[in-house]
């Protein structure tokens, strides 16, 4: 075997070992290999058994060799100056990128991302490395994540439709096209990995479909890493074994239907604001509306309102209009993709709430933000759980869509101060579609991430109509 071939084989085996170790390190999880893999594995084991070799293989070793034979037929090996190799393996819609680099990085310098070209009308959200168009600041655009390399690094992408190698401004890159059906028109369907060989970093770009290919390519051609000090350096991630494992099974959490944490419209719920100041929170009324002409337009969340106007779901006279909605069956991103399994006509609705907040403490409540999203919970044998149905579009935004007495700009959800003993009435609302009003639940002034529906201190009001 020639020296280069031997070196290449060593690299392949190294990557194979990493893939195999990952399979066996899933902590006793039941792993289901594909039927093709199982067939190839059996053929391989059959060959081993017929050689009558005196060498005894342990099961793990045999399977690792099998994986080398079966999986590591590299679809791509990118080499430059024999310093690194980027090996791409694709299993249906799962794409694994293994970057093998002989160079030892000291990482004794700090770097800041420099963008010498930003598409016109696109701005950065603070110093976040997320760029969006001025007319669509809350969605779409390009987001960048910087990863520091250790020399043996693996990335994973699911829902991969296709990929190709590019050299962008002398940086080897992998461009991945994904096939997903997310709710809404914006899809982050392009991922780019751009390797900064000299510095030892990979820049990962998430690109939405509202950015033209010519624009994101020009932006990536003009991006660089400039040396700086620790304070001004771009935040970076360090790859670990647990990253890029792909989509993990979702856990279902249930709320008992007879839970004492579920309240009715009209109930005064005793709770605390930011765990300190006691208040009484009451939903006085909930009304599902088909027309919003009598509501003050200035109180609407402009993103939600303008999106529905753009989709022609709000008529000039305020009437909320019907639309066709596609029902999506989600794939696992490995063996299956998302697919449309049905279509129905639904109507846009608006849920208008009147609530009161009574300050029972002896101090003025300041900096109160009312931004509790509406939750859609559905009934099951185990209790209430978050509704799982996926659709191509719904007016339900996950935000408070209407709020009177609100703040301005980024402080839209900020409420005026509430003095001790004062009872403040608030009008708020949410856009939904006609399949959702029966599932509506409102968490009461809860500001932690909601995962467990029966978490301590989490009170719900059933506002289903």
TrEMBL record:
Keywords: Membrane, Transmembrane, Transmembrane helix. The keyword Transmembrane helix applies. The chain crosses the membrane at residues 62-80. This is DUF4179 domain-containing protein. It comes from Vagococcus luciliae.
């Amino acid at each position: 075997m020639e020296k280069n071939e031997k070196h290449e084989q060593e690299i392949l085996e190294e990557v194979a070992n990493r893939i195999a170790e990952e399979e066996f390190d899933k902590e006793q999880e039941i792993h289901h290999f594909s039927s093709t893999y199982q067939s190839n594995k059996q053929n391989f084991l059959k060959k081993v058994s017929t050689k009558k070799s005196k060498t005894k293989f342990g099961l793990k070793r045999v399977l690792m060799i099998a994986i080398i034979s079966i999986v590591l037929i590299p679809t791509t090996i990118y080499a430059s100056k024999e310093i690194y190799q980027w090996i791409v393996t694709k299993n249906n819609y799962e794409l694994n990128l293994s970057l093998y680099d002989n160079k030892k990085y000291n990482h004794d310098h700090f770097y800041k991302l420099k963008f010498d070209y930003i598409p016109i009308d696109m701005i950065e959200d603070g110093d976040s490395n997320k760029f969006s168009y001025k007319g669509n600041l809350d969605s779409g655009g390009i987001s960048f994540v910087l990863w520091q390399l250790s020399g043996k690094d693996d990335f994973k992408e699911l829902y991969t439709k296709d990929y190709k190698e590019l050299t962008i401004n002398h940086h080897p890159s992998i461009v991945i096209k994904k096939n997903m059906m997310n709710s809404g028109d914006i899809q982050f369907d392009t991922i780019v990995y751009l390797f900064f060989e000299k510095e030892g970093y990979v820049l990962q770009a998430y690109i939405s479909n509202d950015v033209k290919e010519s624009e994101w390519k020009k932006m990536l051609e003009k991006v660089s890493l400039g040396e700086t000090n620790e304070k001004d350096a771009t935040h970076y991630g360090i790859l670990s074994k647990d990253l890029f494992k792909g989509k993990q099974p979702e856990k279902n959490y249930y709320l008992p239907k007879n839970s004492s944490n579920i309240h009715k419209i009209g109930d005064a719920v005793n709770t605390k604001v930011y765990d300190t100041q006691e208040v009484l929170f009451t939903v006085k009324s909930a009304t599902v509306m088909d027309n919003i002409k009598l509501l003050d337009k200035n109180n609407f969340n402009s993103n939600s309102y303008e999106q529905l106007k753009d989709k022609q779901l709000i008529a000039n006279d305020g009437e909320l209009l019907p639309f066709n909605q596609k029902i999506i069956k989600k794939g696992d991103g490995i063996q299956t993709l998302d697919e449309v399994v049905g279509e129905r006509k639904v109507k846009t609705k608006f849920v208008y709430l009147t609530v009161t907040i009574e300050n029972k403490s002896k101090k003025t409540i300041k900096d109160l933000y009312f931004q509790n999203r509406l939750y859609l919970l559905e009934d099951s044998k185990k209790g209430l759980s978050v509704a799982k149905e996926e659709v191509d579009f719904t007016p339900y935004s996950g935000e408070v869509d209407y709020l009177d007495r609100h703040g301005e700009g980024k402080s839209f959800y900020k409420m005026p101060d509430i003095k001790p003993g004062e009872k403040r009435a608030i009008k708020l609302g949410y856009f939904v579609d006609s399949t959702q009003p029966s599932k509506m639940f409102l968490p009461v002034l809860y500001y932690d991430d909601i995962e467990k529906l029966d978490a301590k201190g989490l009170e719900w009001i059933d506002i289903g109509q």
